[in-house]
Amino acid sequence: MNICYGIITHKNSNILRNTINLLYRDNDIILHVDKKVDKAIFGEYKSVADIMDNNVNVQWGTYSQIESTLNIIKNAMKYNFDYLCIISGDDMPLKSSTMIKEFFERNKGKEFIGIDTGINYNSIKNRVKYEHKGYHYKKNKNILEKVAAKVQKELSLQKKNNKFELLPKLYKGPNWFCVSHEFCIYLLDYIENNKWYEDAFKKSLCGDEVFFQTIIMNSKFKNRIYRLNEVDDNHMALRYIDWKTGPEYPRLLDENDFEKIKEDKNSDCIFARKFNENLDINKFNNIFNLYE
Fold first, then answer.
1. Domain architecture of the chain: domains with CATH
2. What is the pLDDT of residues 71-87, one digit of tens each?
3. How far apart are CA 45 and CA 7, in angstroms?
4. CA angle 8, 268, 255 (to 5 degrees)
5. Model's pTM, two decimal places?
6. Contact (CB, 8 A) for 74 and 188
7. Among 189, 167, 160, which Cα is nearest to 70's?
8. Interatomic CA distance for residues 183 and 181, integer angstroms
9. What is the pairing mode between strands 83-88 and 178-180?
10. In the chain, fewer beta carbons within 10 Å around the N or the C end?
């Protein structure tokens, strides 16, 4: 079982260092470093990871989040992998590399990508139906920007995406997933043969949570999705993410969360995020039996 890990990161932290140290020996590692950051900071990983040259300036909510993931998938095609896992620099594994390989071997042929089946369809459409402007991509808008966005929405003043009507039924889920080599080939072929599809997401808002899910759910690979009717779409993608407890959303996980993660019996999660970078790494590795 050959696994390639594509890591999207903007900082060199203890979390990233631990994840790479745990995984690099018998897996391929691709590192996408945000173009805003000096790649020299990540020089310690040159011998164990493929540090991408076609990296992009990643900005929240924009097409750049799709582009960075696509570039990882394109880079991964030079490796002989069975599964490609897209993770962030804030993730850490919950199982050893050997156990992860055994899990994928037992479930070979499945696709591990989350699909939110309970979301209102209009909320998905609105991410792609209109062309979004700069202030739409700000997490913390000022009062004027909030008013402008609300007025545009209420009065239907936003310019419509002229590619929207070409799109198949849309689906949404988390932008972190593990998918097969076969699906990656299908995905890249689909985009190459339907260039309008990528264009349709160029001015989307948080389209990275729709782009990949829509392709897989409108293909034969839909029938291979792991636990498709799972309530928690993050569990479908094998991720432990706490969107409920706070105070941050998602919660910044620390030592107080270790036992709760271990007791999550309803999931087969192999990764968790986001972690507080100041947590006790050795304690984490020992509790989850990650040393091999």
1. 3-121+163-287 (3.90.550)
2. 999 999 999 999 999 99
3. 12
4. 70
5. 0.92
6. yes
7. 189
8. 5
9. antiparallel
10. C
